[in-house]
Amino acid sequence: MSAGIRTLLAGLxxxxxxxxxxxxxxxxxxxxxxxxxxxxxxxxxxxxxxxGFAAGTPLIAYIVGVVVVxxxxxxxxxxxxxxxxxxxxxxxxxxxxxxxxxxxIYDVSKRFVAVMDSKGGDDLKSMRPVWCMFGGxxxxxxxxxxxxxxxxxxxxxxxxxxxxxxxxxxIGGCLVYVPARWIKPAEIGVDGLMSVYVSMxxxxxxxxxxxxxx
Length: 214
Hints:
about 55% helix; about 15% strand
């Protein structure tokens, strides 16, 4: 390999992380814009709200709608941080969970938000990162979350359900039932596990384990 090609490859390797970051940011921005932009489902709702407060072009109505909704969300945040938070959460839970099917979706969404909440909660404390050694020791290793330590007996053998996040956006993923003997603890914390998936493997699990142990 000539020196010129090596230099070119070195430059590409320097730019690659930046290119990946910009691509992910652009994809996320376009995804969000498709829903909350003026032409999206949420955007059209914001426009209708804006027309209710100020007559004008759709763009002005959209801006007014964004301001109104942002103010309402901020007000809800103020109430949530006050002593009224338990009452507000309890009222919303009681209302939404009465709706068939929607209540189930709401319950799952609430559990997921609790996991992602940096403050942590009962759901977050009950979930822990684990290594899934598919095929047993020496097999493929996958970082996953263990929602519960209670096993499920299948064909007379204990199994655990694990959640394997997706990368680089660990919002989705899949649930897999694996033999209990294939699972071993991963001492990196939930935040560490998420950072591995968000970085698409750039963040190395062993470095996180060493940092946690220091």
